[in-house]
Amino acid sequence: MDEKNDNEFLYTPSHWCKRMKPNLVVNKHIEIVQSISEKMKESRYCKSLNIRYGPGDRQLMDIYENSPTSEHTFVYIHGGYWQELNKDISAYCTEPLVNAGIRVIIPGYDLAPLVTLRNIVEEIHQLLSYIKICLKYKNIWLGGHSAGAHLAASMIHPAVHEHFSIKGFILISGIFDLSPLLETTINIPLKLNKNDCLELSPLNILNKFDFSLKTNSIKVFVVYAEHDSPAFHNQSSQFAKLLHKIGIDILEERITEVDHFDIVENLSNNNYSLTKHIINLI
Ligand SMILES: N[C@@H](CC(=O)c1ccccc1NC=O)C(=O)O
């Protein structure tokens, strides 16, 4: 098979980065996000670390804010194909948002192969329950990057987003259809079968739902990088099209001159277009 059309290749974001050799990308990304996140954890914006929201080892969250009365809360779910990265290196988006008066929550979650993807989706439900019931925050915006955008999108359902007072979703370079991952090495720790792919793909779940009957409106911002692979472009535009079809207010945008990694690394910068978009939206 032509390598460029192979799902292994299409779903390996580092292969599509134009800034450096693919084998260097992920380590460089980790170095960058870790250094920004460490500064944030030591800053005056860091309000609480390691608040437990569920029984799993990694079900802990960090809260960043400049005032306890912040009206809006952005919850940012990190990526890493549900098998790598962690919350401690994922606070890189917090400074500009907190400066704009938005509270930011960075949750951790357990990873495959220790838990299944179904377990992880359930952990995100527990996260939202904790934020609503124990922290009593309102006006929640749920965002995520890559696999984190999949987890956020898995909460788009009236029974879920209305219950948890979610105002909107910010889905950055996300995966919404899991089936292309089935035969790739990404699936080794995940162990997804065909049925799991159907039941856990927001693209499939929402295809069966008629939202036009619902009055409560959410906004969904679907955003991806110019230098994401064509498969990621397709996933975002297909998902945006479906959301539009079922009556959800959507905004779709391709961010130019960035790839799967600096599309989120740059969120530490006030002047970056995506940072400004998120602040305007919330
Ligand atoms: N092993 C992947 C890494 C990867 O997919 C990734 C890395 C950091 C943040 C998000 C990622 N992808 C999806 O969640 C690669 O080489 O591109």
From TrEMBL:
Domain Alpha/beta hydrolase fold-3 residue range list: 74-186
Pfam families tied to this protein: Abhydrolase_3
Coiled coil: none
UniProt keyword annotation of Hydrolase present: yes
GO molecular function: arylformamidase activity
UniProt keyword list: Hydrolase
Regions that span the bilayer: none
Protein name in the entry: Kynurenine formamidase
Source organism of the structure: Sipha flava (yellow sugarcane aphid)
Highest classification ranks of the organism: Eukaryota, Metazoa, Ecdysozoa, Arthropoda, Hexapoda
Gene: LOC112687487
